[in-house]
Write a structure and sequence with these properties.
Layout lengths: L12 H11 L2 H7 L20 H4 E2 L6 E3 L5 H11 L2 E5 L5 H15 L3 H4 L11 E4 L14 E8 L13 H25 L6 H4 L6 E8 L9 E6 L5 E6 L5 E5 L2 E4 L7 E5 L1 H6 L9 E4 L6 E8 L9 E2 L17 E2 H9 L18
Helix pairs in contact: 4-7, 5-7
């Protein structure tokens, strides 16, 4: 088990990481064990408490709310994707019951008895369903205070027996709704780019669907770590369902913006590969989640992204979006190379995962 011993010359970070990972109980296991101080491996170089809030955090900002029944929905989606990278979606057609049950399903999985839950703990990313604490546990400078399950729901869903019974039915039902919403959003984004509605879909932007259930348990020292580290998303588009707790922040105009949950709404953000193929028209922005002392934070992120089996595919800016006035920003980029760099922690903190693929100015 991870130690609470004081830091000193004998501190062995690699051994502590391995011992923590071998426990398979995640950060919830640490909380259940009654730890009152977080292990050194979770300490960040810039503790949250030391950030000059007046200059780096802007709390009162009206994030775009996109009504999918609005007559100006294409214009509104385009504005939000280009200028914010984040926006709420309402009138999305997913029943409140489904949203509530998906949150409950994610909570139910993470709060299962440890002996049941650890059966799914793995770092074998060829599996259709797995759970782990920090998928980049061994590559980031400091992991974040959360556990996550990952379920690959497209292009081919897991067999029924591969999914935990406690959340099996709702993951399938929720994924059906999310795929429909994803197609709608891609059509709107295509039109906002001046393209035919099926353009982004025809490029494979909705071929893969990964559903991740995040669980951030109460943290005894939230000023020392993050609930989710500062990062951008891989893939094309992320659709986020979050509980009422809050804590999510994203960067806008060089300041951190607090995202207050909007009941019944889903939060959508542009991901890296959509920024690449739109030649920087749409923006993939950094975001993070603050740790908290009070209650567990639950969120479910649905990623529209390529499946790992298509790593040989090459992405480039859409030709209709490139001109003499708007020259190509990115070189041809293989998914294989992009995924490899992501796994080596590119795109974490202030680094852009797309930086290695930019053409020389």
């Amino acid at each position: 088990m991870v130690s609470n011993a004081p830091i000193g010359s004998n501190y062995d970070r690699e051994s502590e990481l391995k011992a923590f990972d071998d426990s398979k109980s995640g950060v919830k296991g640490l909380v259940d064990a009654g730890l009152t101080k977080i292990p050194r491996i979770f300490h960040h170089a810039r503790p949250i408490i030391n950030e000059p809030k007046s200059s780096t955090v802007q709390t009162q900002v009206d994030i775009p709310i996109i009504d999918l029944k609005d007559t100006k929905v294409v214009e509104n989606v385009g504005y939000a994707a280009e200028n914010w990278g984040f926006f709420h979606v309402i009138n999305h057609g997913i029943p409140k019951r489904v949203l509530d049950e998906m949150i409950d399903g994610a909570r139910g999985f993470h709060e299962m008895k440890t002996e049941e839950k650890i059966k799914y703990y793995s770092r074998d990313y060829s599996k259709k369903f797995l759970y782990a604490c920090n998928f980049q546990l061994f590559t980031v400078d400091a992991p974040s205070w959360n556990d996550t399950f990952l379920s690959v729901m497209a292009p081919k869903r897991p067999q029924s027996e591969e999914l935990p019974p406690i959340c099996r039915d709702i993951i399938n039902e929720y994924s059906d709704h999310i795929m429909k919403l994803g197609f709608t959003l891609l059509e709107l984004l295509s039109e906002a780019l001046g393209l035919k509605p099926n353009h982004l879909k025809s490029l494979g932007c909705a071929d893969g669907l990964f559903v991740l259930g995040h669980y951030c348990p109460p943290c005894p020292e939230p000023e020392l770590t993050f609930g989710v580290n500062n990062h951008t998303d891989s893939g094309f588009l992320t659709i986020l369902l979050q509980d009422s707790l809050g804590g999510l922040q994203f960067q806008h105009e060089k300041k951190w913006v607090n995202v207050s949950p909007l009941p019944g709404a889903l939060l959508v953000n542009i991901a890296d590969l959509l920024q690449l193929i739109t030649n920087d028209k749409f923006k993939s922005v950094h975001h993070r989640v603050l740790a908290n002392k009070g209650t567990p934070r639950i969120s479910v992120a649905a990623f529209l992204r390529p499946f790992h089996g298509t790593d040989s595919i090459v992405y480039r800016p859409i030709k209709e979006l490139v001109s003499e006035e708007n020259p190509c920003v990115y070189k041809d980029t293989s998914l294989d190379e992009y995924v490899r760099l992501r796994r080596n922690a590119e795109g974490i903190d202030e680094t852009s995962a797309l930086a290695p693929f930019k053409l020389d100015p």
